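BUG: 3D viewer hangs when loading the predicted structure for this chain

Environment: internal workstation, default settings.
Expected: structure renders.
Actual: progress bar stalls at 90%.

Input used:
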Amino acid sequence: MQLTYLGHACFLATIGGSRVLFDPFIRPNPLAKDVDVDALEADYILLSHGHGDHIADAEEIAKRTGAKILAIAEIAGYFGAKGLEVIGTNLGGRVALPFGTVHCVAAAHSSSFPDGSYAGVAMGFVIKTAEGQTFYFAGDTALTYDIKLIKERHTVDFALLPIGDNYTMGLTDALVAAEWVGTTEIIGMHYDTFPVIAIDHAAAQAEAKAAGKNLRLLAIGETVAL
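Structure tokens produced before the viewer hung:
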């Protein structure tokens, strides 16, 4: 599979013939100003929760591409009412799709739409691809013992974890989360977008290395093969 970082917590995964977009927040993100939203293609859009910095571009991209939005029931209902194709889920649910299975897991975080209305609860995703890899997209979460359950149910090859602190867990807790899910491979997200979540890249990578973990901090627009 290939993974492209589009800033903040937004990634585009190409898995087999499917393009899977996570938490699109691109146009309002000045750090992602060079990303051409109009050129992005997606077959599925996975939304971890309802905050604006995770759903900002979902409606536009779904309307243009015909992508199906997978999200917790309340968010699916919100976008379904706009005439978009949706897949409603909830915590613990497992959905089979052409690129693999999506297991919806707990995330400890608030969730509301930009107008303040209720958007269900936050969640993360464990993706088991048809190509044989398994990865964890944590969404926005604190360090919580629920994360330990993932290792009991899955063999995780790599994890996409928030590391910016303040609104989510910071790197120190993310390193514990990686240990709990059983992986040494971390791709950082939810950092640098706002001053309050800016990190020292060199210090972060040194801390990760000291903990026996490989932390990747991708440049916006960078694509890696995994």
